[in-house]
């Protein structure tokens, strides 16, 4: 990854970021960055798309405002994230590398970086390839018959188990955080993972939270997923 200063223009506002860029990625410019409000509404991030490079930009907004909650903004958004280098895009990039080492599919990263201006509320930048001919895991799952739904749960749980054996878990495991391509492969698009806690009680609570937030509406399939994952949590 090459490190450089780069200027981007989001919603007609020019912003400087210190970015780490993949040498093989296409050169990203200021031109043609289109907002994607339909994605913004479903997350705590702002999304933009650049058609000429087929790049999706994900910018994580600060949790707190310096005007409304100065000390929490300074402590959490500036000191704990930007100044220590633990901003969201960096965590997502390092998580992606762990998944790749396990042989799991992820989306190619163009660059990731952090805003230089502390008053820029879009502090974290993550740019990735936009994949065509894929659907979200939720849409794919809802279109399957019962036999194929059961097989999908087995495939999903096998990858989560593989990650757990390596000592990690998905921080936000649900069907909209992965894509399914035309070859029926799972592709992780939100790659935030964390180390599994040593406490059995905490691991059990994590599993409960995963199932609650999985966006799998059927109790039967959530039960199937629990049965597969429980020995590893």
TrEMBL record:
SUPFAM superfamilies: Protein kinase-like (PK-like)
InterPro entries listed in its UniProt record: Kinase-like_dom_sf
Protein name, as recorded: Protein kinase domain-containing protein
Organism whose genome encodes this protein: Vreelandella populi
